[in-house]
Amino acid sequence: MIAEDMLTQAQQRCIPDVSFELIPIRNLVSNQEYQRPLSENHIRKALEEFDVYQINPVKVSRRDGINYVFDGQHTIEIIASESGSRDTPVWCMIYDDLKYKEEAHIFADQQKHVKALSSFETFKAHIEADDPKQKMIEAIVQSYGLAITKAKNGISAVSTLERIYDKYGQAVLDRTLRLAAATWEGENNSFSGNILMGIARIVVAYGDTVRDDVFKDHVGRVSVKAIIRAAKERRPGALGYSEAMIIEYNKKSKFRLSLKTLYGGKAMSGEDDFGEE
Q1: Is 236 helix (H, G, I), strand (E, B) or coil?
Q2: pLDDT, tens digit, 9 for 90 and up, residues 176-228
Q3: Could you give the CA distance from residue 160 to residue 276 in angstroms, rounded to a whole number?
Q4: What are the phi and psi torsion angles at 262 (to 5°)?
Q5: Residue 183: left (phi > 0), alpha (psi -120 to 50), or beta?
């Protein structure tokens, strides 16, 4: 243990004057006006993927003998639901004698200088953890001689890869990457989120009606830049890309594909899936 008198004043200013205690949830109060309303959806999702290693200490202001939670109100509700009891204790970081306005100020600024992980950084961490979904996606990507990387000609749109995998399955992701790789042979932006999601929507909507060789020859006649321009003129997001690619597919084709099939055979709607640029 480091003695406090051995620290410089600058070092001491960086150490909050707090103590840690295990406090039963029933002895915590978290209904201050400055706090956001509880999100039942957030609590439900956290319970579906409950992980004790993701629990952070609850920040508590002990004011007038009462333990006011000013950071961690969702944490205590998640733990209470998971354990089935508000008698369950949680680790608390306790600040003594803060005033109400000081609590509100700390709450307001607590995320001010926090740098959130990007989807790419999160994906790479899952890879290091050998998590099966991300490892499977990586294996599919590598099967086409590609890499998940921010370097040129790599794939960085990982949230789109995960979205396709989660929503449509492994086979659709595999065919999507096969078509993208064969059609433009690594052309710049050919693995952007909107291109990949646009192809995935085509694969799902048309299935085996779309011939891979025709897609490669017809759609590959135009550059990715041309597809992007045409897509933006039609509609926002991935469906605009799907439409632009189907139009190119249909040119000089014996078996034309109806754009309405993208929308389940119905008239076109404003519903869309958005990919990463």
Answers
A1: coil
A2: 999 999 999 988 899 999 999 999 999 999 999 999 999 999 999 999 999 99
A3: 7
A4: -60, -25
A5: alpha
pLDDT tens digits, residue range 98-152? 888 888 888 888 777 777 888 999 999 999 999 999 999 999 999 999 999 988 7
Is 82 exposed, middle or buried (CB count within 10 Å of its CB: 0-12, 13-18, 19+)?
Answer: middle
**Distance, CA of 93 to CA of 86 (rounded, Å):** 18
CA distances from 126 to 131, 152, 179 (A): 5, 22, 26
Residues 6+ apart with CB under 8 A from 17: 95, 96
CA–CA gap between residue 74 and residue 90 (Å, rounded): 12
| Other Cβ atoms closer than 10 A to 86 | 15
- The H or E element containing residue 70 is strand 66-71
| Residue 15 CA, distance from chain mean position | 33
3-state secondary structure of 199: helix
Rounded to whole angstroms, how far apart are CA atoms 217 and 235? 24
**pLDDT of 267 over the 60 cut:** no
Residue 142 tokens, joined: 């590598």
What pLDDT, on the 0 to 100 scale, is given for residue 10? 87
b/e sequence 200-214, b meaning 16+ C-beta within 10 Å: bbbbbbbeeebeeeb
Which pLDDT does position 255 carry in this prediction?
82
Residue pointed to by tokens 């740098």: 115
Angstrom distance (rounded) from CA 34 to CA 36: 7
pTM for the whole structure: 0.74
